[in-house]
Amino acid sequence: MHEMSYVLRLVNLAEEAAREQNAKKVTRILVSVGETSGVLPEYLHKYYKKAVQGTLLEGSVLETEANPVAAVCKDCGTSYHPEKEHRYACPACGSNRAELSGGRGVRLMNVEIE
Ligand SMILES: [Zn+2]
User: Fold this and answer.
1) How confident is the model at residue 2 (pLDDT cuts 50, 70, 90)?
2) Mean of the per-residue pLDDT values for the chain?
3) Which CATH number is 49's domain given?
4) What is the pTM of this model?
5) Could you tell me the distance, in angstroms and rounded to a whole number, from the CA of residue 97 to the centre of ligand 1?
6) Rounded to the nearest whole angstrom, what is the distance from the C-alpha of residue 82 to the centroid of ligand 1?
7) CA 10 to ligand 1 center in whole angstroms
8) Mean per-residue pLDDT for 73-97?
9) Which residues of 1-38 are buried (b: 16+ CB within 10 A; e: fewer)?
10) Quick check: 63 and 29 in contact, CB under 8 A?
11) In a domain, 16, yes or no
12) What is the CA(86)–ligand 1 centre distance, in A?
């Protein structure tokens, strides 16, 4: 259950950010979940309530947003979303040479405090 370790790390980061701003509590955090991270947002939600107990984040809302993988074809410059059924090839020219970006890891994007 590596989702729990992600959640704990996010909670720690958010708490640190809140402390730096002398916040009494955190009301909401926004987390970006990479498409290739292997992390399912539903599990983050599942562990969140437990992870925030006794922290500045207790009672706060966890919001997640998907961070999809993007590809830019090195041959024709088309931006596309790589699809497994097309072997991740460029839909415009069929090239397999692409620069990938996004979709990685789990990141804390925003912390709302009170
Ligand atoms: Zn192309």
Assistant:
1) confident
2) 95
3) 3.30.2320.50
4) 0.84
5) 8
6) 12
7) 37
8) 95
9) eebeebbeebbeebbebbeeeebeebeebbbbbbbebe
10) yes
11) yes
12) 13
